[in-house]
Amino acid sequence: AQKVTQAQTEISVVEKEDVTLDCVYETRDTTYYLFWYKQPPSGELVFLIRRNSFDEQNEISGRYSWNFQKSTSSFNFTITASQVVDSAVYFCALSEASSGTYKYIFGTGTRLKVLA
Amino acid sequence: GAVVSQHPSWVICKSGTSVKIECRSLDFQATTMFWYRQFPKQSLMLMATSNEGSKATYEQGVEKDKFLINHASLTLSTLTVTSAHPEDSSFYICSARLLRQGGSGNSPLHFGNGTRLTVT
After folding, report:
1. Which helix (H) or strand (E) holds B51?
2. Which residue from A minimizes the CA distance to B110?
3. Residues of chain B with pLDDT under 70
4. What SS3 class is residue B55?
5. Average pLDDT rounded to a whole number, residues A20-43
6. Whether B34 contacts chain A with CB within 8 A
7. In this predicted model, what pLDDT tens digit does every residue of A36-95 receive, in sequence order?
8. A30 CA to chain B: closest CA distance, Å?
9. Alpha carbon distance A56, B60 (integer Å)
10. Radius of gyration of chain B (CA)
11. B 56-115 residues with CB below 8 A of A?
12. What pLDDT is stored for residue B89 in this prediction?
């Protein structure tokens, strides 16, 4: 069965520190998609990145970077030089082709607090 | 970019009444919309998949008679919480995927801003 695990419930860092948010997934599909979303206190979900199962290339976008490793079923997210505005809950999600509708299964989220 | 509008953003109702939440895709068509529920400090739990012109598909454990979903057009889906009770108080979020050819799995979901329901 599909599953997404975000073992870190809450992380606190001081501004300018680097922080990595872990995501481990389980799936039997060979075709699947992984996503990261940010949920600030206001509640809306902000799309950050998607990655398909055939593309293990890591990606960097500004201070954000993602490390996708199929061998360990992980899709970790690193914020470099964190800022207070990065404080939010971050969700990792899995979408499987076999579901037909590509519905998302979310992890439990990691609450990141960046302290000034 | 694709925008999903959800209304109302918050609602307080008395126990026993029904509440309707609207989810609209403003600048794109969506054959499929998803309804999620989020309890405080918890993850998003998929409630149902809303398909335009057909019945919604509910996840296990979700009462379809209590959470009525209608997807009358390619841009509008509604969730009605019938005979609401305090335990239905939660944050409800809808999402939609841009309709495009060639498969949609790689397209990210666009989320509404959510509706905070409080049942007194």
Report:
1. strand B44-51
2. A47
3. 1-2, 99-106
4. coil
5. 94
6. yes
7. 999 998 888 999 998 989 888 888 899 999 999 999 999 999 999 999 999 999 999 999
8. 13
9. 33
10. 14
11. 57, 91, 93, 95, 97, 104-106, 108-114
12. 96
Do the bridges between strand A10-14 and strand A110-115 make them parallel or antiparallel, or are there none, so unpaired?
parallel
Would you tell me which residues 36-95 of chain A have a C-beta closer than 8 angstroms to some C-beta of chain B?
A: 37, 42-45, 47, 50, 52, 91, 95
Strand partners, B7: B22
Q: With contact defined as beta carbons under 8 Å apart, do B74 and B31 qualify?
A: yes
A81 CA: distance to closest CA in chain B (Å): 26
Residue A92 CA to residue A95 CA, distance in Å, equals 10
Question: pLDDT at residue A106 above 80?
Answer: yes
For B104, which residue in chain A has the nearest alpha carbon? A102
Structure tokens belonging to residue B114: 């959510």
